[in-house]
Amino acid sequence: MRFLRQDYMRHFKLGKKRKKLQKWRKPKGRHSKMRKKRKGYPVSPTIGYKKPAKEQDKIKNLTPKIVNNLKDLATAQKDNILVLAKKLGAKKRIEIIKKAEEMKLKILNIGGKNES
Q1: Which residue range(s) make up the domain with 16?
Q2: Is the pLDDT of residue 15 over 60?
Q3: Euclidean distance between CA atoms 62 and 52, whole angstroms
Q4: Terminus-to-terminus CA distance in the chain, angstroms?
């Protein structure tokens, strides 16, 4: 579930058509229906939405492992999902991707700049 700030759909500076700006901010207005938890308004994050402890820090039920070089890749297991480090250059990135495909490991951020 995604928690978004009040009126994000109304103003560009709050995130209308701009995903990067769609962040959670607690509603603090005096008459805010969202703060009063009125029916039909977006929900606010509460303790009940928390994941179980075993599922926390996992992506697609796999433990993420940051890969900086081929040595890091050698220590990866089947229960890991690989995240390529930001500082990697194109040559090393290609080498690591080929090696990971041989080992049949999943990589989360293979794509270009607009990774999601």
Answers
A1: 1-50
A2: yes
A3: 15
A4: 16
